[in-house]
Specification:
This protein is an alpha+beta fold and about 120 residues long. It is about 35% helix and about 25% strand. The protein has one domain. Strands 1-2-3-4-6-5 form a six-stranded antiparallel β-sheet. Strand 5 and strand 6 form a beta hairpin. The two termini are about 30 Å apart.
Amino acid sequence: MEIGRFFSLQNGRVGQYLSPRVLVVRTPFRRVPHSEEATYFGFETFAQAQKFTQRLASSGYHFQLQRSQILDQFLYEVKLPGTTAIALMLAYWDRADQRRLGTEDSQKGGANASRNLERIAA
């Protein structure tokens, strides 16, 4: 997976990873409403995904929590259909967490980056 690079998902869809756990899916070559755009967030555990969706729900977002279908490196994914604006912000923080955790891992073991995805969705 290369951050920022577009790749084919078949049926006219393309994906772009904005961070290791944030994927934006678009249909750029069709004249379709933006409702076919979606952002996917990956989580290792159901509890992490559930906390994230609770924050999304309290902020008024529509979403689907499901077993991973697109993000096969994670067990669960949260799909936010429509606007992809939130993806940019969450990907920024996820990348920052990855960099910070890389430093902490070499020093004292680090923590789980998905906690911050849950926190910033609020």
